[in-house]
# Entry
Amino acid sequence: MTHNIRANTSQKVPEVQGFQDKNNLFAQQIKARRSSLNKVETVVTHLPTVMVDAEDKSSIFKTKSRQNTNFLSSDELSRTKNCLKPTVTKVTTACAFTNEPETPRSETPRELKRLQVENIWQEAHGHLGKKHWEYPRMITECDADARPGYSTRKAHEYMDEDSVLLEKVKCLATMIRKSKKFLVYTGAGISTSSGIDDYASVATESTIKKKAFAKPRSPLLAAPTFAHYAVTSLHNAGYVKRWVQQNHDGLPQKAGYPQEKLNEIHGAWFDPSNPVVPMSGSLRSDLFSDMLEWEKKCDLVLSMGTSMCGMNSDRVFTTCSKKALRNGNSLGGVIVNLQCTQFDHLSALRIFAPIDTVMKLLLEQLKLQIPKRREGLTSSASVQDYFYIPYNRQSGEKLSISLSDQQQKIGLDLRKGARVRLTCGPYAGDVGEVVGKNRDGHYKIRFLHKLKPNKPLRMPFERLLGRWWAETLCNGAVSRSPIVPA
# Structure
């Protein structure tokens, strides 16, 4: 029998002649420490915060009338901040020795292993599942944590049997038809088939890593996956009402999903007013208040490709799921992921399968047209890159005018050398210069940002503005333009 000593000890095992003598001395040390060494867990609670822009405080929160804005008041933000569910991290600092022998490694072939749920069978199928359905089979074995340092599960990967998967997708289609406020919540897993890596597929033999997805020259040049086009088709058919996305990649917009129906809660590569939020950072107040609004009113949440390890945005899934279990006021939450999550026991439906596969089956069940991939966006010299938009020149807020009223619109110049100013976000008020386009036709803007509020030093940052923003702003589709002429 072997033991793994994880505690530090100042006493070393002396050199002893003979294998048996070493074993006896080792056993004596184990016995001496058994009564004093316990498993100790340090619980670190991280309470998320919500960012309030400096300009928003003075121009919005202090005014009584807040028309055309979705911002929360300072008091509302303070109360919401205090009631957010914290992220809990458990760090094991010592391990107890026991008299029980180690459990030998299972010799069961991996293809015959099944998901072993900890509490209830609904963790394998969801509360709408059937008890007689066969449990998902293990396709990748990995005993490491999927997201170390967060509320995570092991990185094992599982797959539903084909017959069970089809039954689950039929159930999902029925739920979507019944839904009035259908919200899609996605993480990095929805973009892996575009060549963008995720965080939770840590196994060397991960199903995601085994597939030879073509890597783009840069993640900024990645093309949408089938799932991105499928969600766009669901929106065009009137099913999806909101998309809350943790990713920054702009693939929903590239697939044709409207910017105004999307909440890029953790930041965006193609919106200079919404830079990527670091793990220790804060969420933008307008995006956070929009998420809270949809948390209250959505009746169905489809979570795809996210490990849901304790981020603020996980609340859209947990709230909807708990309402369904508590009083039936919603249809609940559906999880599509190869790995287990901490919220599987809350799900109305739990699907273990690749996201693209699930979405193909779903479109067939809903009798929707398979989405066609759009032609790549390329730069064109024939485009003048000068637009008239119905927004206020100072604040960037939408004007209450007719879209045909050209006189009251402002001109937004995105030609090379033009200067623009950010209206919101952590760098509101900063001025940038358009320096050209990338190979996909998205505008490159170079800003000088302050790294510290009380320091005059500014550093250059080149950010992208997605070319779809031109059409979005010309149509007055969003309540606030991220940029205005400087």
